């Protein structure tokens, strides 16, 4: 969703997203293209910093990481604010979904463990 919003709100022509491996753990990466030619360099995004109940913290992380490689990404305050406002509900829903899945998985493990110990 972020890459698509960057393209539409910040006038990038194209983007590429890909799973990556960095610092001995999985990561996400995104590359942007503003002018004709090749895509710019990939920006690595730490998945642990992309999932949080504090969406403003995640948005600040995204801003800082993208701006390191693409300094003009947030140069137009109105566009960047519109992107943040549109992205925030998706982030909140994603976090809630991850929380629900974690609870279901924990309950399933607990039920399975109880089933194994109950028969002995």
- Contiguous low-pLDDT stretches (5 residues minimum) are none
Shape: elongated
| Largest sheet features | 3 strands, antiparallel
Could you give the order of the helices and strands? HEEEHHH
Q: How are the strands of the biggest sheet laid out side by side?
A: 1-2-3
Oligomer: single chain
Distance between the termini: 50 Å
Strand and helix layout:
Blueprint: H1 2-9, E1 14-22, E2 25-33, E3 43-45, H2 47-50, H3 55-69, H4 77-118
Antiparallel strand pairs: 1-2, 2-3
Helix pairs in contact: 1-4
Keywords:
120 residues, alpha+beta, 18% strand
Describe the structure.
With 120 residues, this protein is α+β, with helices and mostly antiparallel strands. The chain contains 4 helices and 3 strands. The chain has helices at residues 2-9, 47-50, 55-69, 77-118; strands spanning 14-22, 25-33, 43-45. A 3-stranded antiparallel β-sheet has the order 1-2-3. The model has no long low-confidence stretch (mean pLDDT 85).
Short summary of the structure?
The chain is α+β, with helices and mostly antiparallel strands and 120 residues long.
């Amino acid at each position: 969703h972020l890459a698509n919003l960057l393209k539409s709100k910040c006038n990038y022509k194209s983007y590429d997203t890909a799973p990556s491996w960095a610092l001995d753990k999985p990561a996400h990466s995104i590359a942007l293209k503003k002018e004709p030619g090749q895509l710019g360099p990939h920006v690595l995004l730490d998945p642990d910093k992309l999932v949080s109940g504090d969406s403003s913290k995640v948005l600040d992380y995204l801003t800082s990481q993208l701006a390191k490689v693409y300094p003009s990404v947030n140069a137009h305050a109105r566009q960047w604010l519109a992107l943040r406002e549109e992205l925030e509900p998706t982030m909140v829903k994603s976090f809630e979904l991850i929380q629900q899945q974690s609870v279901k998985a924990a309950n399933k493990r607990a039920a399975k463990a109880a089933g194994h110990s109950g028969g002995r």
